[in-house]
Amino acid sequence: MSTEGEKYWYNLSTGEVERGYASPAIDRAGPFDTAEEAARAPELFKERSRAWADDEAREDNWGAEGSRN
Questions:
Q1: Of 14, 25, 30, 35, which one is least surrounded by beta carbons within 10 A?
Q2: How many Å apart are CA 15 and CA 65, to the nearest integer?
């Protein structure tokens, strides 16, 4: 099992994949197990954001159909 310092990170400022703690924490997203996963970070962020927004919309509309009497 590897530690977080040995994993891959996506640098939010440069868009580069880094191994270990090469950049300040504020500039890093991760950790990821592989460099390929880290390189897909922006795509993963968009997917997760979309899923969270969908979940929130469902929660906001919970019971809305049944309350129109």
A1: 25
A2: 44
Per-residue pLDDT reduced to its tens digit, 14-33? 999 999 999 999 999 999 99
Residues 6+ apart with CB under 8 A from 48: none
Give CA–CA dist 19/47, Å, rounded. Answer: 23
Put residue 20 in one of left, alpha, beta given phi > 0 → left and psi -120 to 50 → alpha. left
| Rounded Cα–Cα distance for residues 66 and 46 (Å) | 32
Tokens at residue 49, please? 């954001």
